[in-house]
Amino acid sequence: MSCPTGCAPKIAKGLSTVEGAKDVKLEDFDKGLFTMSIDAKSGLKPDAIKKTLGDYKARKIEATITGTISVKEKAFVLKTASGATYGLALADAKACCTDEKAAAKKDPAKKDDCDGCPVAAAALKAKVETLAKENKVVTVTGPVGACCEVALTIAAIDEVKKATN
Question: By Cβ atoms counted within 10 A, which residue in 20, 69, 92, 138 is the most buried?
């Protein structure tokens, strides 16, 4: 985007046409970051989001989705209350280290801390496996990919605790 008064409103208007979209907001012009909510019945459709952008390109789509996590045929699956299912993948240590090195190059004050990545990846994998074995309701956050089906790469996962009265 080159201008906050021309480009940003066009993108926001396009995003607001996505089925089920609401609360479309420009969060950070310099980063080109928009946020929006999508109702559960419509589901997450990355291709529909990209199509509404016209000539603008989305570098990354991230989502936060709540549902029940399980293991199906050795793969992690998240099923929402509305019945939508999403494949889940774990972020690998190589990607983590690539991100850390890129950030360190852009900002020398940031430390290239790849030593912690494999440990963090192993801890995340163990947490996801435990939650999936117990079919827990969780909130998953991460980048969205869409090849054959919509999938989330888990950057963070937290169990949803039931309210007690």
Answer: 69
